[in-house]
Design a protein that fits this description.
Distance between the termini: 58 Å
Largest sheet: 2 strands, antiparallel
Shape: globular
Structural class: mainly alpha
Strand content: under 5%
Low-confidence stretches: none
Order of helices and strands: HHHHHHEEHHHH
Number of domains: 2
Number of strands: 2
Strand order of the largest sheet: 1-2
Number of helices: 10
Mean pLDDT: 91
Length: 265
């Protein structure tokens, strides 16, 4: 019995180590590509987007041919949005909308077409942010908010526990986790904005964006519930799939991209 009792804590420590190592590696790769900018960041963002769409289509149980068509459509619009083709602009956005409608019609699946928009908008948001005069700091702020939210929510939720946030969607999430994630995001966001001279609005937007990131997480949890799976994929040890890791980035990158395009930040 002692052996069995000691196995669970050891397994949890091993899982935490795996999660930490994978998360650290992903952050390091993202920061390196972000620092290089240009084609390096476009390649990473595009690869992530294609993986996310493949997992989205898998959750929809789409046929392989339809998945191939959707991936080809997304790949085409990503090329149009590449630095070599002029970057993200109205043309790329219009093409994304048109191809999403075409995929929905040809594949007879509105949800598959919606996947192009779900994946395409945050990818465009990140690419647009990186292309701004203060794009390195602004994109780092956007990604760091989500990272801080995830880390803060994970550790505060485990340490404090308490009432569940949305047990029907994600039984492990707690209100303590949400508050811990919002606090971490508020601190990290304010520090990055202050130290890099970003617009004053970003000093205060960390916590609201943390809530938005958690909503994105819950939406993906709802999708997995409908599909009857625990993770969207098995690509990332300790984290699941690309959708599992980037679900919080989707709404945050989309909104911050929109705020930057309209001159708010």
């Amino acid at each position: 019995m002692a052996h069995v009792a000691g196995a669970a804590p050891a397994r949890r420590r091993s899982d935490l180590m795996t999660r930490a190592l994978t998360g650290g590696a992903m952050i390091a790769i993202a920061v390196a590509a972000l620092w290089l900018g240009g084609m390096a960041f476009w390649l990473l963002a595009s690869a992530a987007a294609l993986l996310m769409l493949a997992e989205w289509a898998g959750l929809m149980r789409a046929a392989r041919l339809r998945i191939g068509v959707a991936l080809a459509a997304l790949g085409f619009v990503l090329v149009i949005a590449s630095p070599m083709a002029g970057g993200v602009g109205e043309q790329a956005l219009a093409l994304l909308a048109a191809l999403a409608l075409a995929v929905a019609a040809l594949g007879r699946s509105a949800r598959l077409g919606a996947g192009l928009v779900y994946v395409g908008l945050p990818t465009f948001g990140l690419l647009f942010l990186r292309g701004q005069p203060h794009g390195l700091a602004l994109t780092l702020w956007t990604l760091a908010i989500v990272w801080a939210t995830d880390i803060g929510a994970y550790f505060s939720g485990r340490a404090i526990g308490g009432p569940k946030l949305a047990p029907a969607l994600s039984p492990n999430k707690t209100w303590a986790g949400l508050l811990g994630g919002a606090l971490a995001a508020a601190i990290v966001g304010a520090l990055i904005a202050w130290s890099t001279g970003l617009p004053a609005a970003l000093l205060l937007l960390g916590a609201p964006m943390a809530v938005l990131a958690q909503i994105g997480d819950l939406f993906e949890s709802w999708m997995k519930r409908k599909a009857g799976v625990k993770d969207s994929g098995r690509l990332l040890p300790g984290h699941g799939g690309a959708l599992d890791r980037l679900d919080g980035v989707v709404p945050v990158a989309t909104l911050i991209g929109l705020l930057a395009a309209t001159g708010v930040v």
